[in-house]
Amino acid sequence: MSISMGISHKKYRSVHGRNEQGFTLVEMLIALTAFCMLMSFLPIGIRTVLSHEVIDQGIQRMEWEVFYSQMKKEIRLATEITVLEDKLLLKRNNDTILYEKYGSNLRRRVNYTGHEILLQNVVSVQFERLRAGFTISVTDLNGVDYEGYLRSIISVDIK
Question: Where does the signal sequence lie (predicted)?
Answer without folding.
Answer: none
